[in-house]
Amino acid sequence: MPCVRPIRICLLLSALCECVAAYAQQPFLARTDWNLLRDSTTGSAPYENLRFLTGLHRVPATDAFDQAADFVLRKATEYGLNDAHAERFEIDGQTQYGLMRSYFGWKVQSASLWQTGPEPNLIADWSTDPIRLADYSRSADVSAQLIDVGDGTKDADYHGREVSGKIVLADGVLSEVQALALMKLGAAGIVSDMPNQSTAWSGLDPTLIRWGHLDARQARGFAFMVSKATAAGLRAQMTAGQPVMLHARVQAEVGPGHWTVVSATIPGDNPRAGEIVYSCHLDHERPGANDNGSGCVTILESARVLNRLIGEDRLPRPARTLRFIWSPEIEGTMAYLAKHPDIRKAMRADVHMDMVGGDPFKNKSVLHVTETPWSLPSYVTDVGAAVADTIRAGAGGYTDDGSNAAAAVLEDRNGAPGTRNAFFVDQTPYEEGSDHDVYDSSTVAIPSLYLRDWPDIYIHTDHDSLNQIDATKLRRVALLGAASGYIYAALRSAQVPEFLPFFAARSQQRLAKSFERAQGLLLNGTIAPADAGFEAHNLIAQVLRRESVMLRNFVIEASGTPGSAEKSVAALKSQAAILDEWLDAAASQRGLKDTRGTPRWRSEPIALRVPHRIGEFGPLTYQNDDVLQARLGAARVSTIQLLSGDSSRLLNAQGTGAIFAYEILNFVDGKRTVADIRDAVSAEFFPLPLAMVADYLQACEEAKVITYH
Question: Which domain holds residue 593?
Answer without folding.
Answer: 492-597
